[in-house]
Structure to design on (121 residues):
């Protein structure tokens, strides 16, 4: 049994206005905002592509990321949430790492395309 029809249906729902409401509710229920993290803080650092993207971050963004991670770890260890005024607001949860990852993916695709070129006679 193929899951393609289910996947297509979910993509259609996810891209509608209802999907955006569901997406925001899911992000809220995930709880990472309650400990001060941003969505891009959840991206695993084990991938070499992500490691390269982290190296390209400006120093301020890199420092902020480390601060958020340490603060979240402290909340996790003490089993507490941040006060509501310190929690990440939905409008502040903008991707800061994903543009660098996308740029690296484009560079990689371009490099592979150029490597695949052959000389015509």
């Amino acid at each position: 049994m193929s899951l393609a029809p289910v996947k297509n249906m979910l993509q259609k729902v996810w891209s509608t206005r209802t999907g955006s409401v569901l997406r925001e509710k899911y992000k809220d229920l995930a709880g990472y905002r309650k400990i001060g993290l941003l969505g891009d803080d959840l991206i695993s650092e084990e991938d070499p592509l992500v490691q390269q993207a982290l190296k390209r971050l400006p120093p301020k963004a890199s420092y902020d990321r480390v601060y958020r991670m340490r603060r979240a770890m402290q909340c996790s260890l003490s089993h507490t949430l941040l006060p509501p005024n310190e929690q990440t607001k939905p409008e502040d949860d903008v991707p800061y790492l994903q543009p660098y990852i996308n740029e690296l993916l484009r560079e990689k695709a371009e490099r592979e395309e150029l490597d695949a070129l052959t000389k015509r006679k």
